[in-house]
User: What shape does this take?
Amino acid sequence: MTADQMPLRESDWTVPVYAQLPVEPIRGDGVYIETRDGRRILGLYGGHAVACLGYGHPGLLDALRTQAETLLFQSNAVPMAVRAEACRALAAFAPEGLNRVFLVNSGAEANEAAIKLARLYGHQRGIQNPAIVVMENAFHGRTMATLSASGNRKIQAGFEPLVSYHRA
Assistant: This one.
């Protein structure tokens, strides 16, 4: 096989952030994925718990097709009815008193916003340096604030000084 016939390997082109698993999915069907080496396995991974939707469900495909034919994305700086509907549904799911939604692109951005909101809340109540409590050995993201909150020295090494938190 010549070099131009070799399949591309993602790891040849990406920063080595993750240890790659010995599975390369090429197709999904319902709750199963088919791997490059021909295995059909139960797809229990949901993309960091943000895409647990299965594969090829007709209702999901119809919703995606309809939205793609209408309008895929616009900045949060412009209003969209589909986003308003999603926010209304999320707010209805939230505990009483939490009736607003902040849409973000990643878990790190969500955690970063939660840290900022906690600090703002503390400052508004006259607390000079409000404490943020984080969990040891948890993973909260790759931004400086969330990396610092993660409590895993292996992934924090080399990025000092870290943001300080009260560890629980």
Summary: The helical segments are 58-70, 81-93, 107-124, 144-150, 153-156. Residues 107-167 form one domain.
